[in-house]
Design brief:
The chain has about 170 residues and is α+β, with helices and mostly antiparallel strands. It has a domain at about 30-130: Carboxypeptidase-like, regulatory domain (Immunoglobulin-like, Sandwich), CATH 2.60.40.1120. It contains 3 helices and 9 strands. The protein has helices spanning about 1-15, 125-130, 140-160; strands at about 30-40, 45, 50-55, 60-65, 70-75, 80-90, 90-95, 100, 110-115. The strands form 2 sheets. Strands 1, 2, 5, 7 and 9 form a 5-stranded mixed beta sheet that branches. It is extended, with a radius of gyration of 32 Å. It starts with a helix and ends in an 8-residue tail after the last helix. About 10% of the residues are buried.
């Protein structure tokens, strides 16, 4: 056991003397696609979900932008091919459709520009839309009014008795 430890120390010393790192740090993961998400009004956008879907595939890979708006897709998750990019940020949409050709061993960089949308309701999930009060529309309000009229008319008929039945 002491001999092994001695050999390890001697090997580390030789490596240091030769200018090599005897204990290399974990290698940075390879990045296939990276970029930055920005908005004209707000600058760098944090927390934007950026999704990439390969042409002809049913699988979508998503990442989230950091505080400076940066995002990156690891090479282990994206193979070579054409990818359509989408974003999810309530109140924003991509300035136009974005696609990118990913080639392994080459890091692609793309900046995504967002613009504000006038109406966010199409972007909302069911849970989010329940938090807002329902907006009455003509169909629902007229249906509710006619239901109330029918209900009061049936109450009036049931309480009115013919004269012969009255005491």
């Amino acid at each position: 056991m002491p001999t092994r430890r001695f050999l390890l120390v001697v090997t580390a010393c030789f490596a240091l003397a030769a200018g090599l790192d005897p204990f290399p740090a974990a290698a940075e993961p390879a990045v296939a696609l990276t970029g930055r998400v920005t908005s004209v009004d707000d600058g760098a956008m944090e927390g934007v979900v950026v999704s990439a879907k390969k042409a002809g595939s049913t699988v979508t890979i998503s990442v989230v932008s950091d505080a400076s708006g940066r995002f990156s897709f690891p090479a282990a998750k994206l193979g070579s091919g054409d990818y359509a990019l989408r974003i999810r940020a309530t109140g924003y949409e991509l300035d136009g459709p974005v696609s990118v050709d990913v080639v392994l061993a080459v890091t692609r960089e793309i900046d995504l520009k967002l613009r504000k949308v006038a109406d966010i309701t199409p972007q909302m999930t069911n849970a989010e839309s329940r938090a807002f009060p329902a907006r009455p529309n003509k169909r629902n309000s007229s249906t509710a009014a006619s239901a109330a009229t029918r209900s009061s008319a049936s109450r009036n008929r049931s309480t009115t008795r013919p004269a012969s039945c009255r005491s």
